[in-house]
Amino acid sequence: MTSRVFMHKQISIQACAYVFLFVWMYVYMCLGNVEYMYVCICGRFLHDMFMCTCVCVFFVCACVCFIELCDVYLKYYANHFCIICEYIYVCVCVCVCVCVCVWRERERERERERERERERERERERERERERERERERERERE
Fold this sequence. Notes:
Elements: H1 2-31, H2 36-74, H3 79-142
């Protein structure tokens, strides 16, 4: 009986960690702008490494909760099924994580490309302005 109570407490702690990390990742993925609060402090690379660590902890907690819930509630005969489900779950989670990382990197690249295009457009505009100024100078010299 004691081990069962211990298992339930352990699952409760893991479930709390799971919910906390889920909320954190929800805020990170959906609000996006939150990242700028601390990107300035630790830089883009450390920021991404930190978030990847959070994602990994999140998925590990989810897997552990899932396995232990299977062990506690479905008993021994379901263990093999739970392990297969765990592998499927982990594969799906890793794929989602990789897709999100790739998508975010592509978004950053698009933003950098848009910024370069804006800079080129400003440079062309400055060049046109200089050309107009030269034309005016030539007109003044002729007069």
